[in-house]
Amino acid sequence: MTSLPPVAISCGEPAGIGPEIAAKAWDALKDRVPMLWLGDPRHLPANVPRQEIAAPSEAGNVCPHALPVLKLEFAGHDRSGIADPKNAEGVISAIETGVDLVRSGAAAALCTAPIHKKALIDGAGFAYPGHTEFLAHLSGRERVVMMLASEQLRVVPTTIHIALSDVPQALTPTLLSETIAITADGLRRQFGIAHPRIAIAGLNPHAGEGGAMGQEELEWIAPLIAELQCQEMTLSGPHPADTLFHAAARARYDVAICMYHDQALIPIKTLDFDRGVNVTLGLPFIRTSPDHGTAFDIAGTGQANPSSMIEAVKMAHRMATSGAA
């Protein structure tokens, strides 16, 4: 067991599979990764050994034989599969507590279980599009970057949850420059890659094919890549996205920066659907999350696949070992 502080796991939506996969992650990693769970223990599977702790410093000794729980009181029901808006304040409190722990150094990293935004809106007037934006708000950061990572591939979408028709207008030199800078800094500080190799996909098919299929690559993407080259990183591209993700191509870079959501997420979900991890770069602490939702349809049945949560906890621990955020 490492001497690092524990990885804090926020409970997410308690009626979803978050409590179950957190318990399974503890069972898989209890002898290797110190961790603690933030939430109401009523929501954990009944057969999971758990022990309430008063402080994160107790987690390391407890973890090998029981899931350490930093207890929070939730006002709603404890049934699986049906979100109760009365639990919204508790879910938000778990996230806020996790941020406080990592920012104070009491926890090494934060791993967040999936939330259900409608329940948070209905129960607490949640004003953020999702977890990432709320974490950025709590950290005072205006711009953060979403990375999806697995053992086989790391990808970053420059634009995220917008219509494909809106991408060319949203994709600007400033946005791409900030995405590259935050990604490079995250790879250096949190992944221990001193000189990141960053491949940048084109926007258009065949990266525009010399202007025959689009002008953005010629007009500003390629010039921007040339302008941003420096000794601290190696940039390449713009690359045709259809030849960027085969095995030989992946060996030539540490991360691929893509121009829109599906261009980034389709390859990683094809290569490693169950073990992809969501990493937020640009925060003043390490944050990972499993790359899936609440799965209300199987919550409480014991069927949930914990692979992504296990990988998220492992990656948070490795990132903390590589260097503090």
Structure in words:
It is built from eleven helices and twelve strands. The protein is of the alpha/beta class and 325 residues long. It has helices spanning 18-29, 59-62, 88-104, 117-124, 131-139, 167-170, 173-191, 216-228, 247-250, 261-271, 307-322, and strands at 7-10, 35-39, 50-52, 67-71, 109-112, 145-149, 154-157, 197-201, 234-239, 255-258, 277-281, 287-290. The longest helix has 19 residues, at 173-191. A twelve-stranded mixed beta sheet has the order 3-4-2-1-5-12-11-6-7-10-8-9, sandwiched between helices. It starts with 6 loop residues before the first strand and ends with a helix.
Key terms:
325 residues; alpha/beta; Isopropylmalate Dehydrogenase; 2 domains; 12-stranded mixed sheet; 11 helices
Topology, element by element:
Elements lengths: L6 E4 L7 H12 L5 E5 L10 E3 L6 H4 L4 E5 L16 H17 L4 E4 L4 H8 L6 H9 L5 E5 L4 E4 L9 H4 L2 H19 L5 E5 L14 H13 L5 E6 L7 H4 L4 E4 L2 H11 L5 E5 L5 E4 L16 H16 L3
Parallel strand pairs: 1-2, 1-5, 2-4, 3-4, 5-12, 7-10, 8-9, 8-10
Antiparallel strand pairs: 6-7, 6-11, 11-12
